[in-house]
Design goal:
The complex is a heterodimer of chains A (239) and B (169).
Chain A lengths: L1 H34 L13 H28 L2 H33 L7 H22 L3 H15 L2 H11 L9 E2 L2 E2 L3 H49 L1
Antiparallel strand pairs in A: 1-2
Chain B lengths: L2 H35 L3 E2 H7 L5 E7 L10 E8 L2 E8 L11 E9 L4 E9 L3 H38 L6
Parallel strand pairs in B: 1-2, 4-6
Antiparallel strand pairs in B: 2-3, 2-5, 3-4, 5-6
Helix pairs in contact in B: 1-3
């Protein structure tokens, strides 16, 4: 019942959400690469912010999705919720890896190093390792129910890292700049805020779109395996 | 593969062709902006070509040569083995420091072998910007395209499985 309702909603909403995400990202890229001004201290290289920051936000949103999905799975035990968490973890690995790589590229001209053992960077790297561990764990267990339960428990334990990632720039002295947009206000020029907002909303919608597509993909994969398994057992029974 | 399925795949390819065209257009606009507002001569190219118009030149501020004033600063700029003398007339800039890579806009005087600048800015590091955008956008496009295509193929396979009956049944 949940499965049919969820998949029905996905099929209905995926088109408009994907299209809106595409438009916002294209506008954000145009504003970020062509229109927005250079930073006084960093110069043109500040344009890396328009991909790095939204991708990092999406990485954290993806992990929140995995966490919520995992809690719901342990409560409801519905396979589609597990597919949803599994999908978000796959997408999360992608966004986390890209955020780390673009951050490293940005660090070289601004900090004069590709990598430093800074709390924000290290906690973000741990987030990537947790997500990779989550996906690897799923390949080691044969029983689908056990696989989903173990993965959900790992995701819930790993969630401890997320507040550390977010607040690391406030809790410790770090090289990484503090939050530009927070409850205290906005400390970024309007000309730079606009493309950043377009990119942030666009990539967040893209994350939703990707999780929807991937959830359906995992469900179809499961369905195909089940069908093939059924056919094989029928054929074996006939021998 | 049935006609409807082939049509669905064609729609996916068509949609992604449009995405690539739009991304290409944004890339071209970004490049044109770079050529118009950021691209600069190296000190070596400046001495070789000796342009007699307003140009941009990039290089590193040579340590020990910088004398800063409120409205005028002098220093030497180098890239590789070539060094030129620079006189910057304009407001004092925090970015103007020894060993800092800068881009200067102004006129080169070949007789004095000196450059008079009226605008300065930090090195744009365009290679890093290009790398960051390529590293994020290219895999994103592949990832999304791969996901959509795989979902379509799975739907087709499931439909085909429905029609399949094991031999001897």
């Amino acid at each position: 019942m949940i499965t049919q309702r969820f998949l029905g909603k996905c099929r209905k909403l995926e088109g408009p959400i994907g299209a809106l995400a595409g438009v916002l990202i294209f506008v954000g890229l145009y504003l970020g690469l062509v229109v927005s001004p250079a930073d006084y201290y960093q110069g043109e290289v500040v344009r890396i912010m328009y991909v790095h920051v939204p991708f990092a936000k999406c990485a954290m949103l993806a992990y929140i999705t995995v966490f919520i999905g995992s809690c719901l799975y342990l409560w409801k035990k519905d396979p589609i919720i597990d597919n949803f968490s599994h999908a978000a973890a796959g997408v999360g690995v992608f966004f986390t890896a890209i955020a780390l790589i673009t951050g490293s590229i940005w660090a070289k001209p601004t900090w004069n190093t590709w990598w430093t053992w800074d709390p924000r960077l290290v906690s973000f790297m741990i987030l990537l390792l947790i997500l990779i561990g989550y996906l690897m764990l799923r390949t080691f267990v044969d029983d689908k129910r056990k696989e989903a339960t173990y993965a959900a428990v790992l995701a819930i334990i790993g969630f401890v890292d997320l507040p550390i990632v977010y607040f690391s720039v406030e809790w410790w002295r770090t090289l990484h700049q503090p939050l530009s947009v927070s409850m205290r206000g906005v400390s970024i020029a309007p000309g730079m805020l606009k493309p950043l907002l377009f990119m942030a909303i666009g990539t967040s919608l893209l994350l939703v779109y990707m999780v929807m597509i991937r959830t359906q993909m995992l469900y179809l994969q499961y369905l195909l395996e089940a069908k093939r398994g059924g056919l094989l057992s029928n054929a074996e029974g006939m021998k | 593969m049935k006609l409807g399925e082939r049509e669905s795949l064609r729609i996916i390819y068509f949609r992604w062709a449009i995405v690539l065209i739009i991304l290409g257009a944004i890339g071209v606009l970004g490049y044109l902006r770079y050529e118009k507002e950021v691209a600069a001569f190296s000190t070596e190219a400046l001495l070789r070509e000796r342009p007699n118009q307003v140009v941009r030149v990039r290089g590193t501020v040579v340590p020990g040569t910088l004398i800063k004033g409120e409205l005028e600063s002098v220093f030497n700029l180098e890239e590789g083995q070539t060094e030129i003398a620079v006189r910057y007339i304009g407001k004092e800039d925090d970015n103007l420091r020894e060993l800092k890579q800068m881009v200067l806009q102004g006129i080169f005087d070949p007789n004095k072998m000196a450059f008079s600048a009226d605008k300065i800015s930090p090195n744009p590091h365009y290679g890093f910007i290009l790398a960051a955008y390529l590293v994020s956008i290219v895999p994103l496009v592949f990832f999304l395209f791969g996901m959509e295509r795989k979902m379509m193929m799975l739907s087709i396979l499931i439909k085909e499985e429905k029609g399949y009956q094991p031999e001897g049944s």
